[in-house]
Specification:
By secondary structure, the chain is of the alpha+beta class. It has one domain (4-227). Helices cover 32% and strands 35% of the residues. The chain has helices at 26-40, 48-67, 104-129, 207-218; strands at 4-11, 18-22, 70-76, 79-80, 83-84, 87-95, 138-146, 149-160, 177-187, 193-201, 222-227.
Length: 228
Amino acid sequence: MTATTGYRDLRVVLPREWWFIPLDDAVRRDAAIAGIVDQQYAGFDDQPLAKEAARKEIGANARRATELGGRRMAYSLMSLAGLPFTATMTMYWHELGSPYGADHLADLYVSFLRELDEEAEDAEAALADGRPVPQVPEVGLARSEVAAGPVLRRVTEATGGDDIGTGLPAYEAAATVPVLLAEYWVPIPDGSGLAQLSFSTGLVTWRDQVVEFFDAVVGTASWVQRED
């Protein structure tokens, strides 16, 4: 009989137009990226420079996600209302030890609320002093429950650049590309930490529809148990 000793992964169901990129093996990663670009530019063999630029961009994001501890990425080639729905998903696994408060999700929620309070205080102080108000991204927090457990969602609407899709706060980049970043955290059932799913897309004007889709994907999440 096999003994179960914890959890090793969080899986979600994505439409078939999403392509997974493994981040634990450079050869498999580069092969997956090449397949994505070939599919994206199918029928456009006269655009080798665009294909090479796409390979470099996706590759840079994948390597950056690996550096940040990402386990895998997924890249969208689907359409939304007839328009290309370019988006990425990155999954992170955070081993955190013992929480400070009730649990890790509560700790994270409190830290985000504290950040928002500090930003509001900075804005009030700037207005009182007659200084320019610091520009900060638009952030929305929400809590919910899915089959995999409680979820904390943070949606950030701002600008970003090369860090799109890696789970980074893209507004720290100097570029002015519109970015919608939706991040979800789910507690690992054994209490050891949090799994994080980070989605990003440039379809900022479709915020409600895009976030609804991301919510639905997270709703399919299920745990994979470790067996010894």
